């Protein structure tokens, strides 16, 4: 028999002073209030545990992804070491070719007529 049931039966008995009935009634109210708060606390604790489980699972997934990325990075670095292209040093370039447009006096300079005839040959 629960405490609340016992107190309810005490309240309903004849010959019990009203002050005792009042105390029993107040005790029942407090026990019900405690029970309600206990349910609320239990619900909140359950939510906290579920959130921790979610964070734990998320952390595990992030950890696995990071391990995968590190392995992938190492494997790619190894592939590049084995099969990557070897770059050759740059060849020397003729300095004359880098000087830009020819001057007006240069004998190698084409005339505008030469350019026009070349473009005409190609259909422009």
Structure description:
The protein is mainly alpha-helical and 124 residues long. The chain is built from three helices and no strands.
Features:
single chain, 124 residues, mainly alpha
Rg, rounded, reads 46 Å
Q: Which parts are unreliable, with pLDDT below 50 for 5 consecutive residues or more?
A: none
Instruction: Give the biggest sheet.
Output: none
Beta-strand percent range:
under 5%
Give the overall pLDDT as a whole number: 83
* H/I helix tally: 3
**How would you describe the shape?**
rod-shaped
Task: Describe this structure in a few short sentences.
The chain is mostly helical and 124 residues long. The protein has helices at residues 3-11, 18-83, 112-121. The radius of gyration is 46 Å and the shape is rod-shaped.
């Amino acid at each position: 028999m629960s405490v609340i049931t016992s107190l309810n039966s005490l309240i309903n008995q004849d010959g019990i002073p009203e002050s005792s009935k009042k105390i029993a009634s107040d005790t029942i109210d407090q026990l019900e209030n405690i029970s309600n708060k206990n349910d609320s606390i239990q619900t909140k604790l359950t939510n906290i545990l579920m959130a921790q489980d979610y964070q734990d699972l998320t952390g595990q997934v992030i950890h696995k992804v990071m391990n995968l990325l590190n392995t992938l990075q190492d494997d790619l670095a190894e592939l590049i070491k084995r099969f990557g292209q070897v770059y050759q040093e740059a060849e020397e370039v003729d300095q004359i070719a880098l000087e830009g447009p020819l001057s007006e006096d240069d004998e190698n300079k084409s005339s505008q007529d030469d350019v026009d005839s070349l473009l005409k040959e190609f259909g422009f």
